[in-house]
Fold this sequence. Notes:
40% of the residues lie in helices and 18% in strands. By secondary structure, the chain is α/β, with parallel strands linked by helices. The strands form two sheets. It has a ten-stranded mixed β-sheet with strand order 2-1-3-12-11-4-5-10-8-9, sandwiched between helices.
Amino acid sequence: xxxxxxxxxxxxxxxxxxxxxxxxxxxxxxxxxxxxxxxxxxxxxxxxxxxxxxxxxxxxxxxxxxxxxxxxxxxxxxxxxxxxxxxxxxxxxxxxxxxxxxxxxxxxxxxxxxxxxxxxxxxxxxxxxxxxxxxxxxxxxxxxxxxxxxxxxxxxxxxxxxxxxxxxxxxxxxxxxxxxxxxxxxxxxxxxxxxxxxxxxxxxxxxxxxxxxxxxxxxxxxxxxxxxxxxxxxxxxxxxxxxxxxxxxxxxxxxxxxxxxxxxxxxxxxxxxxxxxxxxxxxxxxxxxxxxxxxxxxxxxxxxxxxxxxxxxxxxxxxxxxxxxxxxxxxxxxxxxxxxxxxxxxxxxxxxxxxxxxxxxxx
Length: 363
Ligand SMILES: NC(=O)c1ccc[n+]([C@@H]2O[C@H](COP(=O)([O-])OP(=O)(O)OC[C@H]3O[C@@H](n4cnc5c(N)ncnc54)[C@H](O)[C@@H]3O)[C@@H](O)[C@H]2O)c1
């Protein structure tokens, strides 16, 4: 029996509902796939806590998160709760930095009976991953780090940082991900998305991509400039498998790609570092719908599957990997049978009904 500990941060608004939905689905899959147990260590963090006690994560919460085998987060923040300077609390960004979660994995997949924004019938085949470097790039200068060079009221300079250490790890992660997808019947192709024609930093990013590629001769590689990639994600997204890119480019492209196959309620996300991984739906706390059973929990549930897949690999536990596959398959089957009809897409199913339908599909 493999035992793992998951640090659970439900957070604010719909974050709490989608976290509970994910736990319910994982508990249901555990009744069908034996061989592992999960001990949840719940950590309070978010705008609610900040409004009450002036701290954005409970005392010792960051350390406890790091001690667990993985971290699952619902959503954090409420627009009405802010620091004196007007910025929102963001303990989750500190976790990303603290644990060096460089590999941001954003899967984008079309499901039957879910919205497809492109008229071309090939959009039903969209099944890709944007791998977004998540600790440096242009976000090296994110306001939270205080690294912008402010020259009076006349000029502001932000720095785009590409380091060899992180870029090597990122590209290696990308090639391994392409290998894993290939072993699961997907194309297993890795495209380097950059702006190497204009920026020295991006030429460096591409040079390291080529260096790492020599260790993965079985993986087909491609190159695209980021502007052409934006065009291609509209023109022919079905031709791409895994795309690896700098932080800011990945931030923009992953939202664009997510929009092709539905909305925020489908956008799952893994952020992985050397020692731990943080798994969360890409959406926020959705204050406009919170407390009304309207949130689509599938982004969170699919992030839970990404977490089980990660833990299965880390702990060499086939049962956890199998559980991850079963959850993904249940979502596939549920959509195919039109048994998943989230309100988010104009359907008749709220958070609890969608969760129950995924659990039914597991059977
Ligand atoms: N990682 C995070 O925790 C995270 C990410 C983004 C935003 N936030 C925070 O969340 C708060 C709200 O931000 P926002 O409104 O810009 O973004 P949001 O993602 O919360 O909501 C954007 C829109 O998408 C809808 N939506 C989001 N998730 C949905 C779901 N699962 N099902 C159905 N509809 C869904 C919302 O109703 C809203 O109309 C802010 O405080 C923001 O800082 C947190």
